[in-house]
Amino acid sequence: MTITLQDVAILLGLRIHGLAVTGTCVLDVAALCAELLGVIPLADAIRGATISLRWLCFQLSTPPPDADDVTLERCARGFILALIGSFLFADKKGVMVLMCFLPLLRDLTLTATYSWDGAVLAHTYRELCRASLDRSRGISGCITLIQLWSWERLHVGRPDFGRPHADLAPPLAHALHDADVDVGDGELPEAVHDGLPAHPPVEPETPDQVSWQPYVGELLDQLPYICLADQEIWRTMSPLICFEIVEWHRPERVLRQFGMQQEIPPACSYEQQLHAVDARRRHQRNWATYHAPYIALWETRAARIITSPPMLGLMDFHDSYMQWYRRITRRSMTPQLHRDDIRFHTTAGSMDLLVS
Questions:
Q1: Which of 45, 83, 188, 203 sits CB 3.0–4.6 Å from 52 for a disulfide?
Q2: What's the pLDDT at 209?
């Protein structure tokens, strides 16, 4: 299960069809701001190929009452650029925005002709990859997309809007004050413990708690047109591009998300040279030229639509795909011990979560 072009389109309303979001990162930031935003940032608002979001919002958040069309366009570019830097492609601290996006806003009538869906998904894939490394201490990008995707498909952490509001437990300091106790030894009296909310136990996902197809039925009828405009391309097997980033969209590995039977997918080659490309060390490249072969593949995306027979019911435990999946997947979080079944286990205080 993974985030796909379909998820980005429905959750964020971004178009899939369009030009690859790419170009050069060789920019004169001050001159570009003067041309397209009408203001020149101070030296302390520029950091390499980025500018301060705080400066950007302060300068262009509110157009003057007598603004002409040129001024309104500049403010619109500033607003879109701030949206890009604070939401769609946010950095870890949320304080700077990459200026390589600004040239794509030069002609606002053409801005919507880019594949912003593909660019956001490519960036999200790369950030999830980086966040999985041991040395990583955070993640950037469109975190809201990841959260909403999880809420739609998994029960863990999902808000239950149909459940009545529960009384909020008081903060710990408030509970201790009311109990008038001394906690110098770090121990809480039983009466205070009884008044505090208990943490729910960690439990495995069951089949009824996983939603393979959350976007069905009446929900689709209620969505705006833009969310469904490119649904014929939801299952394209194509490279996704966002400047230096190229990541493959692999719907053939998650066909159950599209209501189709999942077969054993073909081998997925890991193009390590693509992951080694990092704009932080190669600012002098024109990515449109550097990734030209992948851009050409993106332009023929309609020719690579994966399909499969409809999925009927749950997949059988002994299905060939499930046997393959169990064989190639690390299914436990602790060393293998004797287990009488394939399900959740607790052993010596540690937890195993096995694929069922």
A1: 45
A2: 77
pTM: 0.81
Instruction: Tell me the DSSP string of 192-214.
Output: HHHTSPPPPPP-PPPGGGB-S--
Phi, psi of 310 (to 5 degrees): -60, 145
DSSP 319-352: -HHHHHHHHHS---SS-----SSSS-EEETTEEE
178-209 pLDDT tens trace: 555 454 444 545 544 444 444 455 556 677 77
Q: What is the token pair recorded at 266?
A: 């073909």
CA gap 313, 319 in Å, rounded: 13
Which amino acid makes up residue 230?
A: D
CA distance 293 to 244: 13
Length of the chain: 356
Provide the sign of the torsion angle of the four alpha carbons 116, 119, 125, 129, taken in this order: negative
Name residues of the chain where pLDDT drops below 70.
161-205, 279-283, 331-356
pLDDT of residue 111: 95
Q: What is the rounded distance in angstroms from the CA atom of residue 159 to the CA atom of residue 148?
A: 11
**CA separation for the pair 56, 68 (Å, rounded):** 20
* β-sheet with 50-52: strand ranges across: 46-47, 50-52, 96-98
